Structures are given as structure tokens and as C-alpha cells.
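Lab channel / #folding
Pinned by the channel admin:
"Please post every new chain as: sequence first, then the C-alpha cells as a reply. Keep commentary short and put observations after the output so the thread stays searchable."

First post following the new format, from NK:
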Amino acid sequence: MDQHSYTANAESEYIDALYKAYKKDPQSIDSSWQKFFEGFDFAKTDSEATWVSEDILQKELQVSSLINAYRTRGHLKSTTNPIRPRKDRQPRLELPYFGLTEEDLTTAFEAGKALGLGKTSLKDIITTLEKIYCGNVGFEYAYIKDAAIDDWLKEKIERDFLSYTPNIEEKKRILAKLNEASVFENFLQLKYIGQKRFSLEGGETTIPALDAIIQRSAELGVQEIVIGMAHRGRLNVLANIIGKTYESIFDEFEGNVPLQTTMGDGDVKYHLGYTSEVTTASGNKINLKLAPNPSHLEAVNAVVEGFTRAKVERQYGYDFSRVIPVLIHGDAALAGQGIGYEVIQMSDLKGYYTGGTIHFVINNQIGFTTDFDDARSSTYCTDLAKLIDAPVIHVNGDDPEAVVFCVKLAVEFRQKFNKDIFIDMVCYRRHGHNEGDEPKFTQPSLYNLISKHPGPREVYSQQLIQQGDIEAALAQKMEKSFKSLLQDRLNLVKQKELTYTLQPMEQAWRKLRNAQPEDFVQSPNTGVPQEMIEKVGKSLVKLPPRFKLLRKIEKLVQQRATMFFKEKKLNWASAELLAYGTILLENKSIRLAGQDVQRGTFSHRHATLNHAETNEPYYSLAHIDEKQGKFSIYNSLLSENAALGFEFGYAMA
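Reply from TO:
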């Protein structure tokens, strides 16, 4: 039986085994059982312990089972939807499921220690569990097998979240960011009536969320964040997170963009990327990149991962803690497009690992015209996170303080464990798929609710006033500032552009130029000296001492030697390896990645030789010369779409 499982009717042998394990090493069992054994009175202290009361023991076990059920299924009951009641996902948290009754509510149980409450009544235990697991945040992590991660998350959720209260300055910053997000959308609505902009309205909490990710990341030593996202809210992110000026954005909005900077004409304003360097509230500098993207939604994910991996290798010396990829998903696209699964499935592979990605889902509950009930079979759009044991935090987009807590936790988790984590922010889409679309054609009841629902900025502002966190006068001042800012944007008051210094890899990239017609008049000289060919040839037939090959591979290596040094004629595979070798001798690095690249699809390449008995790999191209470029090869299953992203990301380096 798994050490983390509980049963309402546990057998005494199982309890005895747990107790013995606890006496031998308390850390070998779940922390809840540790607390249970610490507080429960035994009649004896040896391995033959007998319990004071079978009835008391049974009740304690049932309460422990209840606690575990909240940890496992509480998210199904959480109030994460700001617009409509959640579907009944049958969380099964009622007392009868655990053999408990209303009469037990006033009984004090040792099991309360598992929540840091000490021995307390069942009523207090349930009240605490409801507050932690069934409020505006739904924590989904019970499937994670790593005990260290499970314990860390439990501590964050049941201690830090329970006591989380942002100070007044943090609350003002959240409101200010919501103001900026709303200003931008109002500006677009007034200035570009009827134009497509893929509004963020309904999901404006994305802006304080991204701001909190940046602030917390910088505090933890991150130097760069690479962001990938599709259309929804992209212009708002460019203006209020990346720091691009309104003037620049709307030059592009009106089509004033050099053709060579795009992949053609059309709605280029949604495709362009941007880079900036910002100074955080704590005085740290951090580099931000929003990757350019095509119209194919999640296709940018692989580009961001490839770009991040290139930066980790070339600029940060394989220190994964220095750069974080952040992918912003749409709920329908994440669940429905295969590229999401492919990138997730590859995320822990050696050739593509980037130290963990923060996935932020702007969950509009609808894809174009399709309600989520008709869009996926899974309970959540994030269920692919379970492929890699990544935790998922579902959160109500109308509760920006909760969202900020969740994204800060995500940053801390990523930096500690270097693994992926998902934030599923449930919100809504104020307008249709774009501003010219009428969503009531297909979703009349939902959009009747949305039309009457105040935006996140209004909800939060009123909440702060009611709580007394900001005085009415301050609220009015921020409202006036909000309107003044909007008028300034309408008057096209010029903003100060952020200063930016090109990074070394970007400087190298800038030296490249577009091809000109005269470049194709004649072929370039690609010849290399004879001694270089011989040097590469020798490396391709030389093996380490006592490196045993299969007989067929040994024969292949001998054929290479004959071709290089006797016949002076090369087959296709040997010519390919020669080409790679000469490039490496020019101190240029080469990375080969994809399905079967080591041996070659038709057993032609054999760029990797494997020991016949130990399977130890040997890379001939990595041993040509001490001053050669770096050679790396990853024999990973790789789809065509993902290959484009990862390889493009590396090529940009």
C-alpha cells in the first residue's frame, strides 16, 4: 500500500507497520501520519503497541482520511469561476463518506495537528480545510509522487496561503496594474472602434499576475524571462509589462511596419515580439522578451523553450536558475492543440530541458464560439500537467490577491525544483473572439451574465474600500489618475522609451543580414585544406582504448578508414560527418536533435557509437581537436512542429 494513502477502515497490521516505520525513521512516512503518531497516546512503547481505544483509533483514521480527501479533491469544490456556478464534479467531501456524523463535529481530534492546528474539534478542522482548499483557489497536486515536492507544496498551501495577507503597498500595486490594464483597453476601444484587438477585458488580472512573476523572479536572482503568448491580451502585455510605448504599438497597429520584420502582411500587430530591460520595485534589473508568434496559437511554445535553452547554454553557463520561460495559454488551445502535449512530453528530456516552465492559462471558458463542455473530455484544460507530475493551481480571476499569491508560489516552486508548474486563472472574455464578433449568437445565457458583471478592477477597488484597506478619498484619487492617464494616451502624450543594451547573443545576431540578389550570382568557395579533412577522418575512425563495438559497427568504422585514406571516395554519410567535422574545426558549435539522429533513420549516420556491452556512447565528432566547437546530439523523439521551435530557438543563438 502506498505510504501516502489513507483508509477509513484501516487494518491494524497496516497501522502497526506505519508505526514501526515511524519509530525507525519519522521522515519515511507522510507528515500527516507523523503528527498523528506524535500526538496519539499509546499504552505501550515497544513494537507490540496496543491502542488505548479501537473506537478512538477508528475515528482518528476517519478524520485523517477526510483531511487527505480535501487535499486530493478539494479543488473540485473550489469557487474558481467568477461568472457562473461550477459544475458538480462530485468531490465527495461530506461526512458520511468517512463514517463521520454531525455528532463528531464537537469532538477534538489529534489529526488536527496535521494542519498545524493542534488537537482541535472536527468543526474547526473542516472550517480550515474549506478555507484552504475550497475557496477562490483550487490546489491540485495529490498525484505528485515526489515526497519532497508534496511536503513543500503542503507547507506553502496549508501554512503560507492560510496566513497570506498582502500589505497595503502590495494592494496598491495590484490596483495600479489593474488600472493600467483597463486604461489600455479603454484607449483601444475609444481610438480604434470596431478594430480587432483581442481584448484582455475580463482577464485583466493577467497584468498584475505577470508583474508579480517578474518582481518575485528578480528577487530570487532571475536575470531574464522569456514569454510566449498568442493574441489575447498581447498588446496589453506589450504596453504594461514589457514596456513598449503606445506610440510604437500603434504605429504597428496602423500598419507602419517594415515588411522584412514580419512574415507578411495582415494582422502583424499580433505577431511582433519585443525585448526590454526593466528595473523592479526592489531595484533589480531583469531582461524581458516576448517572442514573436504566428497565428497558430500554441506553436510559439516550442520557440520559447528553444530560445530559453539556447540562452541557458550560451549565455548563462547551464545555470537554469537565471532564465525562466513563461508560456501564456488559452484554455481551448492548450487542451485542443497537439503542440501543447508535445512540448510538455519533451520538457524533462536532456536535449530540451529548460529548468521548468511557468504556464499561465487565461481561461476564458470558451474557445471562439465553443463552450468548454464541447471542447474537451478532461475536467480541466490543464490535465496534461499530470504527464510530468506538474502541480496545477486553479484560481478565480476576480481575486487578484489570490492570483498574485499563486504566481509567486509558482516562481518559488520553479526556482526550488526546476520543474514546470501551471496556473489556471479562470476568468471570462468580455467581448466575442474579436471585437467584431457577437458572442450571444452561440452563448446567450453566458453573455447575459458577463454583460452585467463588473470588471476585475471595479471588483477589487470596491473590495478594498469595503475592507478599509484604502480610503474612499484614495480610491477617488486613483480613479481620477486612471481617467487622466487614459486622456493622456488619447492625446498621444509621448512616453519615455526604456533603455536597452543588446546582449552578446543579440549582438551576434544583429551582424547577420538579409540575402541580396548579388549573393546568388556565384557559389561561395566551400573547400577546406587537405590536412583538415585528414584530421576529421582520423577522429571518425579512432576509438578509446578497450572500447568494444558490435562486429557490424566495427566493420563500418573500417570502411570509413578505407574511404578516407585509401579510396579517397566518400559515401553520403561519411561526407556528412566530414562536413560537420570541418565546421567544428572552425570553432562553430553544432547541435543535432530529433528522432533517430544518432544512428540515422536508415542506419547511415552512426554519429554516436555505442559500447557493445555497456551501451556507453562515444561521439567521434566531439574528439577532433581541443579547440574545436562544441558538438551535442540528442536522440529524442521529436515531432515536426516541435522540431521547428526547438531548433529555431537554438539557431537564433
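NK: The two ends are 49 Å apart (CA to CA).
TO: also worth noting, Residues 1-12, 41-52, 262-268, 638-653 have pLDDT under 50 and may be disordered.
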